[in-house]
UniProtKB/TrEMBL annotation:
GO MF annotation, one: hydrolase activity
GO biological process, one term: carbohydrate metabolic process
UniProt name for this protein: Glycosyl hydrolase
Coiled-coil intervals: none
Top-level division of the source organism's lineage: Bacteria
Annotated SMART domains: DUF1237 (SM01149)
Species in which this protein is naturally found: Devosia riboflavina
This protein's UniProt keywords: Hydrolase
Length: 433
């Protein structure tokens, strides 16, 4: 019998009932609606046994989004083999895409040539070729998370090859100026949609960290070393090393991953911390290795706010706490406050628009149960009457929102609801205690 989204209704109804007992009917109904929307409307099973996941209103599969969209289901995969099969099918598709092009961020379901057409050529399978560190890190994360929660390995046939590609790519981009052939040049677009210097990007100096052209918002980096992206890479390299030893017995691969992780961590320590007005050091958002830095935070993940959720540090880490305080204030140029909400937005959306993803991350990285519950209630109150989450909404009027169908935001609401209800069973340990 063919698998359909409706096949998963019993397990979704089960978790919805558990949420209802803890948090009430309104939260439970929204969780059920969001989970079933993802399962019934965004997933397509392909003839090769893999699964293709669209973001919602864009018919392409982002490596980042598709991982995040599956996050709530990881807590259920150990008790439902069908959900585990779905996650495995998506993971295999992601791994295949990385082997196809490690610099691409979004792909097509077939080699149909759909998507953006830029100056430099790309595969007909590629929807968009914006190079972002997190695209590779998320692919590693999903493969690892499924193994960590179920101990299944059937989705990992190409993992060693992919891990080597990821390490080689991140090594190359440690010195983008001298070693990289990657260029991105898009015509007739806003500056945030292309790279300067004929596609090379702003100038950088080696730091030990790995360079990226674009942020997880798909907007161009101001400076080439994105700190949350590099922290996420360090976490992913830990996962590579663990899988290399535990599943494949490949100690050489583990050592390669460990050496690169050490480079990146030392780079973050040396270049990624800044002091502002003589106060405690905080993480910068981006640096260039030449003395320039940017303090900000974007609603997309990886972000500075999300570092404990990613597994970089604990929520109690003093540098994280100092960073968090600045991120959730006017010191962050993308922090907005209004009569309906306050929180983090993005240059990717209009001013005074807060992202539900960022509100959910704020709750997931908080140690305060009251803050968590308040943020969950805020998300429910700012859905614009649609019963679903959106990309962003205006801080004074939630009926003004961007992207009516954005599956990543729906998934993040569910993650926070499961967390508040005490049903979020899988948590990533911190790389740095």
């Amino acid at each position: 019998m063919a698998v359909t989204g409706e096949s998963f209704y019993p397990i979704v109804q089960k978790i919805s009932s558990q949420v209802a007992e803890k948090l009430g009917a309104l939260v439970a109904e929204t969780v059920e609606r969001c989970l079933m929307d993802m399962l019934t409307r965004t997933v397509t099973y392909l003839p090769d046994g893999t699964a293709f996941v669209i973001t919602g209103d864009i018919p392409a599969m982002w490596l980042r989004d598709s991982t995040a969209q599956l996050a709530p289901f990881l807590h259920l995969a150990h008790e439902d083999s069908g959900l585990a099969d779905l996650i495995a099918a998506v993971s295999r598709r992601q791994l295949d895409y990385v082997l196809l092009d490690p610099y691409a961020n979004a792909f097509n379901a077939s080699g149909n040539g759909a998507g953006h057409k830029d100056v430099f050529p790309q595969s007909a399978w590629v929807w968009e070729r914006k190079y972002e560190i997190d695209s590779l890190a998320y692919t590693i994360q999903l493969a690892y998370d499924l193994w960590a929660t179920t101990r299944r390995t059937d989705h990992l046939q190409s993992f060693v090859d992919v891990a080597k590609v990821v390490i080689r790519t991140w090594r190359t981009e440690q010195d983008h100026e001298r070693n990289s052939t990657y260029r991105f040049d898009r015509l007739d677009c806003p500056p945030s949609d292309t790279l300067t210097r004929e596609g090379l990007g702003s100038i950088t100096g080696p730091t030990g960290m790995t360079w990226a052209g674009f942020r997880p918002s798909d907007d161009a980096c101001v400076y080439g070393y994105n700190i949350p992206g590099n922290a996420f890479a360090a976490v992913a390299l830990k996962y590579i090393a663990e899988l290399a030893v535990e599943v494949f017995g490949d100690h050489g691969l583990a050592q390669d991953a460990g050496r690169l992780r050490e480079d990146i961590e030392q780079g973050i320590e040396r270049f990624g911390l800044i002091e502002v007005d003589g106060q405690d050091p905080v993480y910068a958002y981006e640096v260039d290795g030449l003395g320039n830095s940017l303090f900000a935070d974007d609603a997309n993940v990886p972000s500075l706010l999300s570092l404990p959720m990613l597994g970089w540090c604990t929520a109690a880490d003093p540098i994280y706490q100092a960073t968090r305080s600045r991120v959730l204030s006017k010191a962050n140029p993308y922090f907005y406050a209004g009569t309906a909400a306050s929180g983090i937005g993005s240059p990717h959306t209009p001013p005074d628009h807060v992202w539900p993803i960022a509100l959910a991350v704020q709750g997931l990285t908080s140690d305060d149960p009251t803050e968590k519950r308040d943020l969950l209630a805020l998300l429910l109150a700012t859905d614009g009457g649609t019963g679903l989450m959106h990309e962003s909404f205006h801080v004074d009027d939630p009926t003004k929102f961007t992207r009516p169908w954005f599956s990543w935001a729906n998934a993040m609401f569910c993650e926070l609801a499961l967390d508040v209800a005490g049903l979020r069973s899988y948590r990533r340990p911190a790389v740095r205690d």
